[in-house]
Amino acid sequence: MQTLLTPDVRPGRLSASEYATRFADATPRLTQAQAVLEAERCLYCYDAPCATACPTSIDVPSFIKRIADGNLRGSAATIFDTNPLGGRLE
User: Fold this and answer.
1) Helix extents (H) in 1-90
2) d(CA 12, CA 21)
3) Could you say which of 12, 49, 66, 78 is the most buried, measured as most Cβ atoms within 10 Å of its Cβ?
4) For residue 1, is it within any domain?
5) Rounded (10°) angle between helices 60-68 and 32-39
């Protein structure tokens, strides 16, 4: 006779607050001023090694430039246009 084993996978094992704690960002998000300050550090290199190293071929200097200009929606659109896992802006 064969016994079927039930895997230890069941929904609702953690409370919503426990999920929020365990899957929270490791570091807090940047404020808009901090994001602009970081974006202004970009050198906009001719060969853009950040863009060639990006596994999803995102135009990194373009979206960083849009952050520096304060165009956050445009920056997100640049990422979502080329990222196969990107969402859709509405």
Assistant:
1) 16-22, 32-39, 49-53, 60-68, 72-82
2) 15
3) 78
4) no
5) 130
Q: What is the DSSP string of 39-53?
A: HTT----SS-HHHHH
Summarised one tens digit per residue, pLDDT across range 56-81 is 888 899 999 999 999 989 998 888 88
Token duo for residue 12: 């609702």
pTM over 0.90: no
Number of domains in the chain: 1
Chain centre to alpha carbon of residue 9: 28
Q: Which domain holds residue 74?
A: 42-90
**Does residue 33 belong to any structural domain of this protein?**
no
Taking the C-alpha atoms of 54, 56, 58 and 64 in order, what is their torsion angle to the nearest 10 degrees? -60
Residue 16 buriedness (CB in 10 A; 0-12 / 13-18 / 19+): exposed
